[in-house]
Amino acid sequence: MYVLHSSSFGKNTDRLSKLCGTNYPTSICFIVVNEFCERFSFYGMKAVLTLYFLTYLHWDKDLSTAIYHAFSSLAYFTPILGALIADSWLGKFKTIIYLSIVYVIGHVVKSVGAIPTVGSSDVHIALSMVGLILIALGTGGIKPCVAAFGGDQFDEHSISERQKFFSIFYMSINAGSLLSTVVTPILRGDVQCFGGDCYALAFGVPAALMVVALVVFIAGSSLYKKSPPQGNILLEVCNCIGFAIKNRWRSSKRGPSRPHWLDWAEEKYSKRLIQEIKMVLRVLVLYIPLPMFWALFDQQGSRWTLQATRMNMAFVRPMLNALLILVFVPIFDLIIYPLVRLCRINVTPLRKMAMGMIFAALAFCAATLVEVNVVRTVVDPAPQGKCLLQTFNLVNDNLNVKILGSDLFPEPIHYLQDPDEYKMLSLGESSKNLTIEVTYSGHTSECLQKFEQEKTYSLMVFPSEGGVQFLNTQPRALNLTVGDATFHVNAGYSMSPNMTVDRGHLETEMGSYLDLGLLDFGASYTIILEEKSGTIGVTKIEDVKANNVHIAWQIPQYVLITAGEVMFSITGLEFSYSQAPANMKSVLQAGWLLTVAFGNVIVLIVAEGAGLEQWKEFLLFAGLLLGVCVIFSIMSYFYTYVDPDQLDKIHQEGSGKEEEDDNYTKTIPNEMKLNKRQKSTKL
């Protein structure tokens, strides 16, 4: 690695480091703060993204899940683009600057799309999608650059400091995630704007934090060690592999066979490069089963969030994973792993990752049990050929309701009686016109009503003395005039006052506070307001019972998935870094990030194609991951670990002369195998 910096810069950095009482370059402070703000920005936006799709854009849960994971997948495909730009064109510093600007623009566009007064629903969807694409390009593009740029700030002798930096860097990621997943849901739900939940503010604050991240990173510009582009090693690897395949195909019927198919590239590429690619490919083959873990892990922001919305939510759930990470990392490093070693169990990185898969599968088994209990408290939707119906009596007398061809309401309905549950009305077809007969106070009247399958209806019977009234089913308020009478009807299934035209305009004002009592999570209420003796009386009817499954039952699944993350994700990063040649660590990091992208693709396929009940889908994912874990364990058994210290030594000895390539190739199989003590490099 070639580093461009002056001697005066080094002296100034040393002075500042001594003043801070550390051996760290001062530039590290700017990088860590930048990462904290960027992760706050990203995870803060994702914390409310699924609910934004459901409640603001009014998408169903399957489409919301699909778009959520499509965005997550794109955010982990774009690191390849960022690595290409940084290595072959701009360098890490300029790549971070330019793509951070794209990142900020994406957040701003996303925030504007959440403002109800900006255009129609199609405009909101368009702005939201454009914003998400720009955010994915920004966050994915800088992802492979920021951590590596931080590592560049240390000289080759500061190995210990560089390792501690990666630990601090990872902690800053989780600190930003923890804070943002607490703050942005509060901004969404507790702050009201434009007459509802304030998604514009919930997305706007992460946008502001991304601006801060960019400003902080630029502020440290004069302190950074900036490496120039060194050529695209990823492109060179791909070219070498392509040449080997092409050369082998052309020479398949002539000439002696070669020990490895990559050896067919020896005519054009050095044996050293070929050997390094072999090492990388051995690790990439191990990565093939890994996307299934991420398919489960990333559902915390989609399916698990949807599960939580149907539970009794009494505390902030999204913070659990980030909080548990901050607790579990030191517990595993200082207590659990040493205790396992005391039992003389060899804790290899691949064994940790396999155990992480098992814990993630157990987390989804726990989620399945919770889902089964949640479903019991939710009103089942009407199946095909049927609809749901309930009746409210507002006529201050006993009410008899008959639907010809059905016996739904055999008993009289008392005044303001709380319906026990929705009644299932059989139609026998997709829609049907049925006659409803209503009898009260000795009077009988009939009406013809069209019912459609899989829908829910409420029949409200109230006295009327004649006149005109309007029911508004539009998403906007209406002002109507009939003769001298003006009717204002609020938006969304609102009823106007009943008036006769010759009485003129009627005004009603309700300026006092009304006590509605406890409105519990998951319940559905009908609130009836009646004027009695000059005051407004309140009658609350509970149409759907409140959720009785407390959200605390999700804690076990979060504990299990977080334990799996500590063993799988952090260990995977260490494994990828330690098993790669020095000049190909970015290649393996890109491969590692791609496993996350493909994991989200798996969720997209299952969510859109399986069509299973939620608990069955959870169980399917758990079973698939356990099966993949078995395959991964078998592959791991045949993997030979590489000693990174010996690998670096071989790199230094093997550079320079072409004739040394043969010696390099011969020494690789023996010198790079780890002994029984099993070394590992910890980030």
UniProtKB/TrEMBL annotation:
<protein>
    <recommendedName>
        <fullName>Solute carrier family 15 member 2</fullName>
    </recommendedName>
</protein>
<feature type="transmembrane region" description="Helical">
    <location>
        <begin position="40"/>
        <end position="59"/>
    </location>
</feature>
<dbReference type="GO" id="GO:0016324">
    <property type="term" value="C:apical plasma membrane"/>
</dbReference>
<keyword id="KW-0597">Phosphoprotein</keyword>
<feature type="transmembrane region" description="Helical">
    <location>
        <begin position="352"/>
        <end position="370"/>
    </location>
</feature>
<feature type="transmembrane region" description="Helical">
    <location>
        <begin position="97"/>
        <end position="119"/>
    </location>
</feature>
<feature type="transmembrane region" description="Helical">
    <location>
        <begin position="618"/>
        <end position="639"/>
    </location>
</feature>
<comment type="similarity">
    <text>Belongs to the major facilitator superfamily. Proton-dependent oligopeptide transporter (POT/PTR) (TC 2.A.17) family.</text>
</comment>
<dbReference type="GO" id="GO:0030670">
    <property type="term" value="C:phagocytic vesicle membrane"/>
</dbReference>
<keyword id="KW-0812">Transmembrane</keyword>
<feature type="transmembrane region" description="Helical">
    <location>
        <begin position="587"/>
        <end position="606"/>
    </location>
</feature>
<dbReference type="InterPro" id="IPR018456">
    <property type="entry name" value="PTR2_symporter_CS"/>
</dbReference>
<feature type="transmembrane region" description="Helical">
    <location>
        <begin position="125"/>
        <end position="146"/>
    </location>
</feature>
<feature type="region of interest" description="Disordered">
    <location>
        <begin position="652"/>
        <end position="683"/>
    </location>
</feature>
<keyword id="KW-0325">Glycoprotein</keyword>
<dbReference type="GO" id="GO:0071916">
    <property type="term" value="F:dipeptide transmembrane transporter activity"/>
</dbReference>
<keyword id="KW-0399">Innate immunity</keyword>
<dbReference type="InterPro" id="IPR036259">
    <property type="entry name" value="MFS_trans_sf"/>
</dbReference>
<keyword id="KW-0472">Membrane</keyword>
<dbReference type="GO" id="GO:0045087">
    <property type="term" value="P:innate immune response"/>
</dbReference>
<feature type="transmembrane region" description="Helical">
    <location>
        <begin position="65"/>
        <end position="85"/>
    </location>
</feature>
<keyword id="KW-0968">Cytoplasmic vesicle</keyword>
<keyword id="KW-1003">Cell membrane</keyword>
<dbReference type="InterPro" id="IPR043381">
    <property type="entry name" value="SLC15A2"/>
</dbReference>
<dbReference type="InterPro" id="IPR000109">
    <property type="entry name" value="POT_fam"/>
</dbReference>
<keyword id="KW-1133">Transmembrane helix</keyword>
<feature type="transmembrane region" description="Helical">
    <location>
        <begin position="199"/>
        <end position="220"/>
    </location>
</feature>
<feature type="transmembrane region" description="Helical">
    <location>
        <begin position="279"/>
        <end position="297"/>
    </location>
</feature>
<feature type="transmembrane region" description="Helical">
    <location>
        <begin position="319"/>
        <end position="340"/>
    </location>
</feature>
<keyword id="KW-0571">Peptide transport</keyword>
<keyword id="KW-0769">Symport</keyword>
<keyword id="KW-0391">Immunity</keyword>
<dbReference type="GO" id="GO:0015031">
    <property type="term" value="P:protein transport"/>
</dbReference>
<dbReference type="GO" id="GO:0015293">
    <property type="term" value="F:symporter activity"/>
</dbReference>
<keyword id="KW-0653">Protein transport</keyword>
<dbReference type="Pfam" id="PF00854">
    <property type="entry name" value="PTR2"/>
</dbReference>
<dbReference type="GO" id="GO:0140206">
    <property type="term" value="P:dipeptide import across plasma membrane"/>
</dbReference>
<feature type="transmembrane region" description="Helical">
    <location>
        <begin position="167"/>
        <end position="187"/>
    </location>
</feature>
<comment type="function">
    <text>Proton-coupled amino-acid transporter that transports oligopeptides of 2 to 4 amino acids with a preference for dipeptides. Transports neutral and anionic dipeptides with a proton to peptide stoichiometry of 2:1 or 3:1. In kidney, involved in the absorption of circulating di- and tripeptides from the glomerular filtrate. Can also transport beta-lactam antibiotics, such as the aminocephalosporin cefadroxil, and other antiviral and anticancer drugs. Transports the dipeptide-like aminopeptidase inhibitor bestatin. Also able to transport carnosine.</text>
</comment>
<keyword id="KW-0813">Transport</keyword>
